[in-house]
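#dry-run=false #mode=assembly
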Amino acid sequence: MRLRLIYSTDVVEKPILAEIILKTGIPINILEAKVNAQKGELVVSVPISGKQLEDIIQMFEKAGVKTNILTKTLQIDMDRCISCGACISPCPTRALRFKPDWTIEFDEERCVACRVCVNACPVKVVTVLEA
Amino acid sequence: MQYLILEGSGMSATSESEGIRTIEEINDKIKRGDAVILTADEMIKLAESSGIDVAAKEVDVVTSGTFGAMCSSGVFLNFGHADPPIKMTKCWLNDVPVYKGLAAVDGYLGVTALSETKGFEYGGGHVIEDLVSGKEIELRAESYGTDCYPRRHIETTITIDDLNQAMLVNPRNCYQIYDAATNSTDRVLYTYMGTLLPNYGNVTFSGAGQLNPLCKDKNYETIGIGTRIFLGGGIGYIIGEGTQHSPQSSFGTLMVRGDLKKMNSRYLRGASFYRYGVTLYVGVGIPISIVNKRVAATASLRDEDVLVNIRDYGVPVRPDRRPVVKRVSYAELRSGKVVINEKEVPSSSLSSYKMAQEIAEVLKKLMMQRTFFLTKSVEPLPKYREFKPLSVRRRELMVLDVMKREVFTASPSDDVQVAAKKLIEKRIDHLPIVDEEHKLIGIVTSWDLAKAVAQEKRWLNEIMTRRVITAKVDESIDVVVRRMTQHNISGVPVVDEMNHVIGILTTDDISRKLVGGITK
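#status=ok
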């Protein structure tokens, strides 16, 4: 599951993520990070679900970090896709690849909705749905 | 028996080129429904399992296919005359300009023409796709009015059915091979080869490799003027070599034409390359008649056998001078990763292999259904063509002509106050920072110094920019101005090969030089 973590000015300098990893032992992986002195926004992947996920979201919220669960970020109109591959190699997280039949396969778990593929697509069939 | 002893000597050359079957014989078999037709993929498998001799003996035709962005494409249109009539001197379809240096109501719409209202989002390629899809298109035209053509303005809508002719005529399609692209610089490049990530972050390539028509008949033995082909979902013909045809280096190209009215928008797709421009993806399939063993051999070539260069698009020089980073096969490129500088780099295509396969299949089916027959070419494609760059005979402004040779520099351990004083005294805005050997290691501007004073910083090494954008003496001013605009800066140090500062170039210098040029 991917989460977007939004740090406000009050908490941006605290090592909240590190503390939660140490406390829970869950290997949270940072996929994207935009942090400055005023605020921070991370997209992380957490290899858990159900109750465990709820708990970890609670821990972030309690520490003052807003969390959004990211689902279905990218949509490819497969009827209009020409299977060219222009989106594949520019993808920084390797979330796009060819299937053996040379059609495009999208790995939602890896996507950080950076929009590189949206721009790279020559026939404009990739859209990002805001989660 | 027209290909006897073309090259080499002895029996083998003779038997390689000895005619096995003629186009007429193959057409008879297609008519009877017993021609052996394989797609290029199937031919490769057969040659691998049974050998070229067997493949040459058994197979009559191999179908090839390609589906890629082909910028030298366009359509000749005849709109018909309105009442009162107009001699259109300017014309737009959905705000995309149509070339009007032709007769009153004839025009040519090129696929890279940009919409005057939507820019990179929509262009000639999109209009062609929309026409073929049967969509209504806005037609607007202007004229100066003549005695025979009094109307000066027209605005209406058209569909493809309203046109007398819509003839796709593409000056250059079907590149035999195409060099792949990568990027050595530290910023993302948006090119006609797609998005190129910094520091060799990815490789993009184009071309169908083992399915590509010209690769499958690389000695041009069956492909020539008059060859009937699959074009954009309809029927087309090769009308000659394409522009920039350069067969001696395997960069053969084709000029093709076909009736747009009979085409299918599945095989003609308008496209936009981010921050580059618009184009058209064109589907082309060509039947390769296996007239002799040599054609059988080339028709069996695999991606592994077709080599291309990976070039660095980070160097702003003409295409054939872009540094070659590596030479690889289409098989390596298609595997999804290429090794550059001992690092695995993801590679992906811009042309569609899936659609190329589909086109080869469709062409095969058309022949099996006896609706597509082969034609004998009336003239072969040239095997040699000069390929020249454009030399610029007018002298262009170079960095050397404009830069100031007197450069004031500072050392990283200099005091901010001292540096600020120097800028005011010398009336300059840029201060390159150099080491003991006069090599560039940073830069500070008057803005940096103002900030440093406000923040009470003391030493230049606390405030200097370490990643300095530079220029070389032999670069054109045009290129350097674009670089300065991209980085939003007003000056660049000029450095030599050893990174020694030898001059400085600012926007002030450039405007002074240009204004000076005008008043002279």
